Amino acid sequence: MVKLCCIGAGYVGGPTMAVIALKCPSIEVAVVDISIPRISAWNSEQLPIYEPGLDDVVKQCRGKNLFFSTNVEKHVAEADIVFVSVNTPTKSQGLGAGKAADLTYWESAARMIADVSKSAKIVVEKSTVPVKTAEAIEKILTHNSKSINFQILSNPEFLAEGTAIQDLFNPDRVLIGGRETPEGLKAIQALKEVYQHWVPEERIICSNLWSAELSKLAANAFLAQRISSVNAMSALCEATGADVSQVSHAVGKDTRIGPKFLNASVGFGGSCFQKDILNLVYICECNGLPEVANYWKQVIKINDYQKARFVNRVVSSMFNTVSGKKIGILGFAFKKDTGDTRETPAIDVCRGLLVDKAQLSIYDPQVSQDQIQKDITMVKFDWEHPVLLKPVSPTALKQVDFVWDAYEASKDAHGICILTEWDEFKTLDFQRIYDNMQKPAFVFDGRNVVDPNKLREIGFIVYSIGKPLDQWLKDLPAVA
Ligand code: UDX
Ligand code: UDX
Ligand code: ADP
């Protein structure tokens, strides 16, 4: 029986290994992590991450050929293939701070693999790491290995949160990068055989190590660029009276462009886009390509601009002050169907409103109060960011209230901000919400989930990203 081990039981490692276990009953899969609470949760009824369909997959294989454990060294020692899926956050200090990936966790995982291995292994890079990390890891492994043969592969993960199980069941492609030596090709083949249990061969792409690593950064940069492009267009639509949904529909009909990832929003979030672009920027700068670095940086700058613009719309609409006013925040996660809040635009919007002394009442169906408190007060590295990202002092949490119901969040509020496109927000009883709000009652829809005209009929003043403005907003001085 082939044995797989995955170091890191997070958003990537957990679902990916669960699906491999489900699709490959002949393979034994161990997912290991240094975090005891995380592993206990994986072994409980309440999995540590919310992902539609995941519970089902885990229940079918856990205890059969899927195991979650904190006994990292034992499982690594026994495995034929070791996936490394540890976190690679952006460095917060030292060389490359704010841009380069922090490889501390990766390096310690690699050293541990070298330490405990007694037989040849294929080591698979699964987390997003900058180009040439595999080479660094290879060096660590070969210099510490007591002549054990290690083959390094890069197998970037393209799953998106909220649709992880679907994406894993039916991936657009699986990418495997490796050395172009006989041993390297053999390792690529071994991993390919794992995926071939369910992925059609033509969707499994093989390349050299560096191409695989760079493809992951490039794919995320291209996706984020589409959102920044449509968001930049949304500002122009608001200024001119065009409707961004109509524009993106028309643009997306061109088969060379395609319809996906053209939804204007309050900004993209998530653990990958910003981090990967910052990585790309850093790599370009290190390679003496400042023009290319600046080109990609602009994608993040537009994202920051979009969040700042949203806050400005809220404050300027409400007579230029939200001080002491209750504002209901509907949605905090970075997208629907996940409880993940990493880089969610809601953090920056809430901070911007708190700085202006608003009273926030936050509701998200999957995010805990504890998480939101941590996010709002967290000190982030100030990457050439505008004012919004200034940390908010813990005392500002007095201005924040957490509720488990959208109606409660909007009760007596002057305005509501929709920051995540949860399906349940589409079917709220807005008449009931309106009746319980202060007047004039404002809705700021950062995800274009409501029909602005229907809400206007009820009496709301509505701002939707990139849509024609209400007279109320038109009469205000232009926002920058
Ligand atoms: C373009 C639009 O495609 C068309 O829809 C619009 O109506 C008019 O402008 P055109 O300028 O005729 O059409 O040619 P197009 O095929 O778009 O190519 C434009 C330029 O981009 C060419 O110089 C082409 O060589 C270049 N190109 C195109 C690339 O360098 N790489 C590509 O992948 C595609
Ligand atoms: C992304 C990539 O899609 C995935 O392939 C990669 O492996 C990891 O990074 P993820 O961050 O989970 O996945 O979510 P994604 O669906 O890409 O959304 C990212 C952000 O963009 C979200 O905040 C989302 O709301 C926003 N978005 C997405 C838009 O604002 N408009 C769109 O049209 C699409
Ligand atoms: P991702 O979104 O990339 O999956 P997460 O932060 O969700 O990232 O998961 C990464 C996991 O890796 C965390 O649960 C963390 O505890 C784990 N981890 C980090 N370093 C090590 C290590 N050296 N050994 C085992 N697990 C590790």
UniProtKB/TrEMBL annotation:
Domain (UDP-glucose/GDP-mannose dehydrogenase C-terminal): give its ranges: 328-452
Which residues hold NAD(+)? 8-13, 33, 38, 86-90, 127-128, 161, 272-275, 342
Q: Does the keyword Ion transport apply?
A: no
Enzyme Commission number(s) from the entry: 1.1.1.22
GO terms, biological process: UDP-glucuronate biosynthetic process
In which pathway does this enzyme or protein participate? Nucleotide-sugar biosynthesis; UDP-alpha-D-glucuronate biosynthesis; UDP-alpha-D-glucuronate from UDP-alpha-D-glucose: step 1/1
Which residues are catalytic?
272 (nucleophile)
Give the keywords, sorted.
NAD, Oxidoreductase
Give the InterPro entries listed for this entry: 6-PGluconate_DH-like_C_sf (IPR008927), NAD(P)-bd_dom_sf (IPR036291), UDP-Glc/GDP-Man (IPR017476), UDP-Glc/GDP-Man_DH_C (IPR014027), UDP-Glc/GDP-Man_DH_C_sf (IPR036220), UDP-Glc/GDP-Man_DH_dimer (IPR014026), UDP-Glc/GDP-Man_DH_N (IPR001732), UDPglc_DH_euk (IPR028356)
Q: Which family does it belong to?
A: Belongs to the UDP-glucose/GDP-mannose dehydrogenase family.
Protein name in the entry:
UDP-glucose 6-dehydrogenase
